[in-house]
């Protein structure tokens, strides 16, 4: 329990707003994902079919993985919400694109977190810097739900 508390504290100290931890294994939504893909709902996104196994089960990507750490970061800014504008000519860009490239920001934070974990658990698979994050692969919402980090 102490290790989990330390991990949560470190994750928040790295600048993440949410953190949750779930047991690794096949996602509860894996069969629904397969049915969704079989019905062709993914359109032209062929990569989804090509990576279904690792999307459904993180252990296929990281054999021996015991836990998934799901993190979240708010897109909030001090700028007014787009709904506050009454000008029909106003065009708004999604909040996640307002600041620095969040992919780079997330990657830097995840690499630091991975190094911290690797220092605490030398030789543990998946803790190598950058080994924690390949955000396109995981079923983020499923893992976030299971880990209890509040993301839906």
Task: Explain what this protein looks like in three dimensions.
- With 152 residues, this protein is mainly alpha-helical.
- It has one domain.
- The chain is built from seven helices and two strands; from the N terminus they run αβααααβαα.
- Strands 1-2 form a two-stranded antiparallel sheet.
Could you state the order of secondary-structure elements as H and E? HEHHHHEHH
Strand order of the largest sheet: 1-2
Q: Would you tell me the structural class of the helices and strands?
A: mainly alpha
Average pLDDT figure: 77
Radius of gyration: 18 Å
C-alpha end-to-end distance: 25 Å
Characterize the main sheet: 2 strands, antiparallel
Give the uncertain stretches in residue-range form: 128-139
Q: Could you tell me the strand content as a percent range? A: 5-15%
Choose one word for the global shape: flat
**Helix share bin:** 40-55%
Number of domains: 1
Distinct helical segment count: 7
Q: Would you count the extended β strands for me?
A: 2
Helix and strand layout, with pairings?
Elements: H1 2-13, E1 18-23, H2 30-38, H3 46-50, H4 52-56, H5 58-61, E2 67-72, H6 102-120, H7 140-147
Antiparallel strand pairs: 1-2
Which key features would you list for this structure?
two-stranded antiparallel sheet; 152 residues; mainly alpha; single chain; 41% helix; 7 helices
Brief synopsis:
The chain is mainly alpha-helical and 152 residues long. It has helices at residues 2-13, 30-38, 46-50, 52-56, 58-61, 102-120, 140-147; strands at residues 18-23, 67-72. The chain is flat.
């Amino acid at each position: 329990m102490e290790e989990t508390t330390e991990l949560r504290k470190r994750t928040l100290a790295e600048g993440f707003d949410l953190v949750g931890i779930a047991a690794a294994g096949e996602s509860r939504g894996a069969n629904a994902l397969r049915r969704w893909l079989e019905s062709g709902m993914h359109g032209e996104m062929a990569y989804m079919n090509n990576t279904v196994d690792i999307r459904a089960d993180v252990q296929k990507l990281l054999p021996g993985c015991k836990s998934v750490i799901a993190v979240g970061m708010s897109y909030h800014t001090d700028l007014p919400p787009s709904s506050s504008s009454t000008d029909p000519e106003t065009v708004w860009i999604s909040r996640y694109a307002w600041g620095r490239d969040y992919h780079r920001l997330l990657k830097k934070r995840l690499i630091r977190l991975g190094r911290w974990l690797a220092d605490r658990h030398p030789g543990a698979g998946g803790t190598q810097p950058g080994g924690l994050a390949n955000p396109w692969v995981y079923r983020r919402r499923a893992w976030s739900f299971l880990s209890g980090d509040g993301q839906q």
